[in-house]
Structures are given as structure tokens and as C-alpha cells.
Prior knowledge:
Helix 1 crosses helix 3. The protein has 5 helices and 9 strands; from the N terminus they run ββαααβββαβαβββ. Strands 1, 2, 3, 4, 5, 6, 7, 8 and 9 form a 9-stranded mixed β-sheet that branches. 29% of the residues lie in helices and 31% in strands. It is globular. The chain has a single domain (5-181), classed as Aminopeptidase (3-Layer(aba) Sandwich), CATH 3.40.630. A hairpin with a 4-residue loop joins strand 1 and strand 2 (11-14). By secondary structure, it is α+β, with helices and mostly antiparallel strands. This is GNAT family N-acetyltransferase.
Amino acid sequence: xxxxxxxxxxxxxxxxxxxxxxxxxxxxxxxxxxxxxxxxxxxxxxxxxxxxxxxxxxxxxxxxxxxxxxxxxxxxxxxxxxxxxxxxxxxxxxxxxxxxxxxxxxxxxxxxxxxxxxxxxxxxxxxxxxxxxxxxxxxxxxxxxxxxxxxxxxxxxxxxxxxxxxxxxxxxxxxxxxxxxx
Length: 182
């Protein structure tokens, strides 16, 4: 089981089935869909299936998904680590935040908390794949010590949309500089 993580403004808690409706709303936002790795879900049942799969993956130890809560606002986003290979020493990072909360440093705060947990859990390397046109996400990762790994490549979503993506990497054990959080 993954632990709840608390930051000065956020509470990250293990994703649960009750978060499906909030995630369906998040993945319905056009601004989020522009950078998402999958197309819009067709129905709330798609979100329920996704959350159920993540919860099952958590029990198997293959994924660690957190819902991001801000005060009384539940599930304003999520941060997920997808474990790669044997031994859980590498992970792929994904994250999203409702666009109403962008520009406040909450994404940096949430991802930094998960990176701190990853380092303590023995994950040696964290990777992220980001659309090259997603400048805010590239800035967020750079603030947290990620660097480009190789050249951008073409990524094709299941709906046929073609995007250019960049892989970024970071040693999980690297400390987050205090100025990155301000």
C-alpha cells in the first residue's frame, strides 16, 4: 500500500474508486486533453475502469497512484508512478492538475512530494514523457531536476493524434532544491 503524503498545501492520498467522477471531469477538460497521452473518455464508466485498474495495480505493486486534494476540494489532480522493470528501481511519472489550479505551484509541490517518497522507497531513476509543446510541464520538471534524455520522438495516441514527445529523467534520490518549491 502507498502512504498518504502531506505538503504545506496539499494532501496526496492513495487513489480510490470514489475518485472516478473527478477524474472523468479532469479528462474532459480540453486544456488537459491537449497534453494527455490518451483521448477523452467516452463515458464515466471509462474513468471507473481506469481507476479500478490503477487500484488493482497498486495491490500488485506495479503502480502507485495518488489523488491530490486541496483543503476541501477532493481530487483536483493526480500523480502516478508506473514501476518499470524488476525490483522497482525505475518508474515513469505522470501527473495532472485541474486547469483551475494551474499557475499556483501546486503541481511542483505535488510532484516533489512523490519524488521524495520515491527516493525513500529506493527508486533510483524517475522518467517522464512530455509533449514538446507543453512548456508549463517541461518547466515544472526542469525545476525539479529533470533533464532531457535523447531526442524527441513521435507519439501516436489511440485516436490517431500524433504528438512530439520528449523523455526527461531524474535520479529519484536527488534532493529537491528549496527554491524549486517557491
